[in-house]
Amino acid sequence: MANRIDSKFLDLRTRGQPGFIAYITAGDPAPDRTPAVAWALEEAGADILELGIPFSDPLADGATIQAASGRAIAAGTTVAGVLDIIREIRKFSEIPIVLFTYLNPIYVYGYGKFLADASAAGADGLLILDLPPDEAARNGELKRGRGLVSIQLIAPTTPPERMELIAKSAEGFLYYVSREGVTGEQSTLSRSISSRVAEIRKHTSLPVAVGFGISTPDQAREVASQADAVVVGSAIVRRIGELGNSPDLAGQIASFVRPLASAAKG
After folding, report:
1. CB 86 within 8 Å of CB 118
2. Is 145 left (phi over 0), alpha (psi -120 to 50) or beta?
């Protein structure tokens, strides 16, 4: 059976259309609210869902996602609970799901057990922010597999030779971090996105998604013209934080995301 991520990008390429990837923190504002938000994102045009596993020390994330992790943990969200959320989503949706996480939570859970359980729950990919591919290659217990594709990050500071190494170990798509620093909304985009995406494409035939800082329809449209997919996270997560436990949380998130997804798809 083809991985949902690969199938989605094949479909997008066939239609000549960029993809829209939405990130949310699982369990924010509460575990039982996440499935409805996931459905709202798909209805609003999200092609892929990035589901963050809340962690107490999210070093690559800015204040918005740090706060979301805190809310999710306070609401009782655990790694096992995130897998339960995926099972709930799979009752009504086949949207590709990438688990976005740090190594510590899943290593404590048990790396091999996590891969098996996440795949069985319905996850499709895994992006571990603090596990470089060469480090994973040196540790047998960190071997990937179990049906989950390994998504890799490339930064603005990544030199070409390192880029080639990362590209060789990647599956599904490559995630280009459009600027240095932590996650968070930005008023302007980096001017180097186009040239960096072109450099990445010299080393891989995988789709290239661009994220970190994209928060408006105009920004989504501009990035989509240069990449295979646009990732929006902090802008969505901030609104979830503002809305809290509003009865219409899912509907209001859909209303916010729809123009972003529409702009990305042209």
Report:
1. yes
2. left
Q: Hey, what are 221's tokens?
A: 């449209």
pLDDT classification of 181: cutoffs 50, 70, 90: very low
pLDDT the model gives residue 146: 65
CATH of the domain at 249: 3.20.20.70
Q: What is the DSSP string of 3-18?
A: -HHHHHHHHHHHHT--
pLDDT in tens, 23-72: 999 999 999 999 999 999 999 999 999 999 999 987 777 789 999 999 99
Closest by CA position to 26, among listed 100, 118, 95, 130: 100
Catalytic residue among 6, 28, 47, 50: 50
Domain count of the fold of the chain = 1
**Annotation marks residue 61 as catalytic:** yes
Q: Is 50 a catalytic residue?
A: yes
Look at residue 140 in the predicted model and tell me its pLDDT: 60
pTM of this structure: 0.94
| Candidates 28, 42, 61, 84; catalytic one | 61
